[in-house]
From TrEMBL:
Gene3D superfamilies named among the record's database cross-references: 3.30.70.920, Winged helix-like DNA-binding domain superfamily/Winged helix DNA-binding domain
Official protein name in the record: Lrp/AsnC ligand binding domain-containing protein
Organism: Terrimonas rubra
HTH asnC-type domain boundaries: 7-68
Entries under Pfam families matching the protein: AsnC_trans_reg (PF01037), HTH_24 (PF13412)
Alphabetical UniProt keywords: DNA-binding, Transcription, Transcription regulation
């Protein structure tokens, strides 16, 4: 259960620095922000308990690991009330790495990562299209990812 937390400037600075480099030690971050490493540790723990910080992730180059296809799928639902059940089924497909409930033409928009077109075809045809509640889909293949960044949470 997420705890309600009033964030102060230090919390936002910690979040910003950790989003830029999650490998920074608490001691080094404390020096940058003029507080102790222990203070950073306590603040991070509070942010985790509040559900604001949700762990750290390794940012791997997927292409170098053999994942050559990134695609986006616009999903039309038969009825918007089916969102929750369809989302649960989509979550079972490991190639889908992100799912959003959207406004506009699609009810849902998913990001999918595959090793090749054959795997993409399998996911689209043999898995996704068989989920009850999906009316149809529209697939967009990414030719290049130009950049990825986090939102800036504190002013300069």
């Amino acid at each position: 259960m997420a705890v309600k937390l009033n964030l102060d400037k230090l919390d936002l600075q910690i979040i910003q620095h950790m989003m830029e480099n999650a490998e920074v030690s608490y001691a080094d971050l404390g020096k940058k922000l003029y507080v102790s490493g222990g203070t950073i540790h306590v603040r991070i723990k509070k942010l985790e308990e509040a559900g604001i910080v949700k762990g750290t992730r390794l940012n791997a180059d997927l292409k170098m690991l053999g994942y050559d296809v990134i695609a986006f799928i616009g999903i039309y639902l038969k009825e918007s009330s089916l969102y929750d059940s369809v989302a649960r089924e989509l979550q079972k497909i490991p190639e889908i790495v992100r799912l959003n409930y959207t406004t506009g033409n699609y009810s849902m928009f998913a990001e999918i990562v595959c090793k090749d077109i054959s795997q993409l075809r399998y996911v689209l045809h043999d898995q996704l299209q068989k989920i009850k509640g999906i009316e149809r889909t529209e697939t967009f293949i990414s030719l290049e990812e130009s950049f990825v960044r986090n939102v800036k949470v504190v002013g300069s």
